Each structure stands twice: as C-alpha cells, then as structure tokens.
Amino acid sequence: MIASRRRALLLGALALSGLGSCALLGGGDPATPAAPLSVPSDSVLVPRGRLLLDRRAMGFGGLSGLHVDDDLRYTAVSDLGRWVQAQLVAGPDGVPVALKDLRSGPLRQDFPLPLPRPLMRDAEALARLPDGTWLVAFERWHRICAYPGFDRRCEPVLQSPPGLDAAPPNAGLESLTVLADGRWLAIAEGLQAGDGTLPAWIGQPGAWASLRYRPSSGYVPTDAAPLPDGGALVVERSFSLLGGGFRAMLRRLPAAQLAHPATEAVLVPQTLIGPDALPHDNWEGVSVFRHRGELWVAMQVDDNELFFQQGQLLFFSFRN
C-alpha cells in the first residue's frame, strides 16, 4: 500500500486527473468479468481475462499478497490486517469469471501487549510452504509470520533476513516467495543503494544469503511468485504525481540467476510485460498456477481503499 502521508496528495491529484479505476457502487458479487488486456503478438504471455473486485461485497480492500493454487483457490492478504479466501469459478473456456464461497477474517497476532493497529496489521506479501503453512510478510514492524491456518495465531519467524529491520517503515518486504526447491526469496522495497539496487535474500531462516536486486529505474518490487523451473516472477511498480500516477511491469528472474548465486550477486530480471501494456494501477500481487495443462499467471491490484480505485485480478497463460 502507498504511504499514508502521500494518500491525501494521491486522492486529490488522481481524482482531478481521472487516473485509476472507478469503484463499483453496488451489487453483491465480489468479482465481475471484464475484457482481457491486449499485449504485443510476440509476448510469451497470452491474456486470459480480468476480474474487477468489489471491496464492498468482499468487506474490505487493500489486497496485497496473492496466491492462486492449481484448484483455482484464491487467497489474499490485506494491509488492513485481514485475509480472504474464495473459489475462482472458470467459464467453459477455462477463464475465471467469478469468485464464490468467500471467507475472510483477521490475521491474528501472537503478541502479549496491544500495539498500534498500523504497526501490527500491514500485511504486504503472501507465500505458501510445501506443508501448507502460510507465510505473511508485514511492514512498519518488519517481520514474517507463519500461519498453519488462518484460524490460528501468528508463529513469528525469529530469524528474518539480516538488515531488514533497517528498512523504512513502509518499504520492507513486499516480495516474499518460496521457490520450487523450497528456498525462500525475499526482496526489500526500500534501502536502495547508490547503484540503484535493493537488498534481496535467498535461503531460509538461519541460512540467508544476501543478494542485490536491480529494478527498472524508478520502480520498486511489490510481489514475487515462483516458477516451476526454479525462476521467479516479480511485479515492479512506480508512482509519480507528475509522471502519470501508477505504472507497473511484470518481470522474470531466470532460474540460472537463482540456482547458486554468490554473496551480494546482483539479480537482473527480464521484462515480460512492460508499463505500456498494463493498466496504470497499483499492482501489488502475482501468483503462478497450473490450469488445464497450462501455466497461468494472476496479477492483483491493491485499491488502497480509495473511492476512485478498484481491485482487479488479471490472468495470463504462458504461450506454448
């Protein structure tokens, strides 16, 4: 989610300029189909539909971390400190057209003393371990929590990536994923070095290797998802009041860069979808799943709980 001190500026500027998505103003369906995107004909990704999310029907917005499994089970976390799960309903052509059986609740914390809500609830990234445990990365109080189930309390991951605690309050881990071989990949949104790179880590608690990540100029990573070959997808987003509001791109880290990286190695992603192809919105979630024998990608917009923005789910499949 964008920093709260910038929210008033964003609200006024984008409302005047007409940028951002229009919110749905009624109805009880949490998701409504919309036209897919148009991408260049030589793209490795094929557009496969889009869903507009109604935060009133869902009960809240601010959706950041995203996970879609091979059974089309949708899971997301909100920077309001909540989780949501639902079933994606596919049409005859396999394209998701609705969400049903929606469930949600608070992300329960395991802390003995009450703390300010913004400090506790700013969930920004979601990943899943092979045993089904959910990992949730929080900003402001930078930490990773493990949830055996969302009806359970947080089990803090005691050995977070080294140096993460130095990140600015609203620029911690927005990108956390579990790679195909079980290692974790984490990328910070802040702590940019003079060469433009950001801190990244690979490994597991107690066995982290420090890396660097090179985003596109003016962009920061906002989510990551594993690829079956050992690589990963990364969403990058930029925001500028003078430069047209939000812009985003989808990038890929090849498996070779993640296989055996040297300490402080620089990860350099490839661009799959550039900023001219994606709607100018606050893209903060990405997930990879198998569906009908193909590898699919889902992307998600965080609506910041602002009236002129709307959550979205965007779907692609990899070209065979």
Automatic annotation (TrEMBL):
Signal sequence range: 1-23
Domain Phytase-like: 59-304
Pfam families the record matches: Phytase-like
The entry's keywords: Signal
InterPro entries attached to this UniProt entry: Phytase-like_dom, UCP031900
Entry annotated with the keyword Signal: yes
Protein name, per record: Esterase-like activity of phytase family protein
